[in-house]
Amino acid sequence: MDTMRDRLAPVLTRLLDEDPRVAVVLAEIGKDGFTEAMRDHPDRVINVGIREQLLVGAGAGLALAGLRPVVHTFASFLVERPFEQIKLDFGHQGVGGVLVSAAASYDWPAGGFTHMSPGDVALLDTLDGWTVHVPGHPDEAEALLRHAVAAGDDKVYVRLSVQANEQALAVDGARFLPVREGRSGVVVAVGPMLDQVLAATEGLDVSVLYATTVRPFDEEALRRAVGAGPSADVVIVEPYLAGTSTSAVNDALADLPHRVLGLGVGRRELRRYGTVEEHTAAHGLDAASLRGRITGFLGERTRAGVVS
């Protein structure tokens, strides 16, 4: 299976051909995929070199000129390093664009901590009005990229990863999808966490929701999954900083007694390079670890057929 990022250049190249408003801004990373597009659209495919603040500023400038900019590099260089430019050049100036990241939380362990960005979504949460897509499969990435570019002048972040689920689902850029139904709690699996969550909850009496658009947060889907019970237990499993969306869950269930457990990437830096799989296990996001953490939180009543 190809990766989400493998879809980026072909999809954007087609969009450049189809829509004269689309522009692409790169900071050296990923430029080889746009060789043909640079030749065909030299005024709308711009490589600024390794200058990430300029990358974001140039994208915002194109938006001010009426274009729909798509800005791409690794997440740590796209969100963390030029955060001031995101805040001011896009937010303060009131323009929109599409930020598309790669490398996610720890997709390239050999690159070290400089190339890891588990806090990107939490950081964007400090700003107003950003839509955040977290696809879990290359097909979903392609669909959400097209959705993001077509989203008028909105501010959109698309988080690509080498981690992926085996099967794509029909995502629409808005709703959470119900995958399983149960009575003893709700587990929300974000993007590439779905397969691990499904394996972890096999045989448990819990509902599973699949989320690929986490901002805005689909409060209605969560409330439907919780149902009309006297209280609610929710676990959210995210491929970035643990607890990023616990406040969103709390807001959705503000009028109901509830408990929420946020699972994701820990704050402690793992200083050995290792592999993606080793980082996943070390952060407790593999299926076996998730099962223990989920059942520990929800209790024995999660076993299928057991109702307390």
From TrEMBL:
The protein's GO terms of the molecular function aspect are: magnesium ion binding; transketolase activity
Q: In what residue span(s) does the Transketolase-like pyrimidine-binding domain sit?
A: 2-168
One Pfam family this sequence matches: Transket_pyr
E.C. number, please? 2.2.1.1
Q: Which Gene3D superfamilies match?
A: 3.40.50.920, 3.40.50.970
Q: Which residues cross the membrane?
A: none
Keywords, A to Z? Transferase
| Top-level taxonomic group | Bacteria
Keyword Cytoplasm on this protein? no
| Name of the featured protein | Transketolase, C-terminal section
